[in-house]
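User: Here's a structure from my thesis project, written as structure tokens. My advisor, Dr. K., wants to see whether a designed sequence matches the one we expressed. Can you design one independently, without my sequence as a hint?
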């Protein structure tokens, strides 16, 4: 059996993926992969996702330069969620979010509202052309 056959793909042929920073264990982002994206990620050692809005493979950092080097690929106990242990490249500290922040999880629930708790490290207008 092919290792990709063990993944429980959803009805659209996708699996949710969490990118976690190696070392800090910060959760950087959530995305989706199809079979081809997961296979390329394993082959290249670089995060490749599937963009649902563009219906195509998305090589993380292809526009921004904020590439993710993949150190480990893990599958959860139900075989339906992938965890990538990554090093976020292209900026110090690493920027994983299209808003120019380290992590996509920059809003924290506090006292009945969402509060932004992480700064913009680089203006997104200067990242994306």
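Assistant: Designed independently from the structure alone:
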């Amino acid at each position: 059996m092919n290792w990709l056959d063990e993944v429980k793909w959803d009805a659209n042929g996708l699996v949710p993926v969490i990118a976690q920073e190696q070392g800090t264990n910060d959760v950087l982002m959530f995305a989706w992969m199809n079979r081809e994206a997961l296979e390329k990620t394993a082959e290249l050692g670089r995060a490749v996702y599937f963009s649902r809005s563009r219906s195509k493979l998305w090589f993380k950092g292809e526009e921004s330069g904020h590439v993710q080097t993949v150190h480990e690929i893990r599958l959860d106990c139900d075989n339906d969620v992938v965890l990538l242990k990554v090093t976020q490249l292209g900026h110090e500290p690493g920027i994983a979010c299209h808003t120019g922040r380290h992590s996509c999880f920059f809003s924290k629930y506090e006292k009945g509202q969402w509060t932004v708790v992480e700064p913009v490290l680089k203006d997104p207008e200067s990242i994306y052309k």
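When you compare it with your expressed construct, this may help: The chain has one domain: 1-120.
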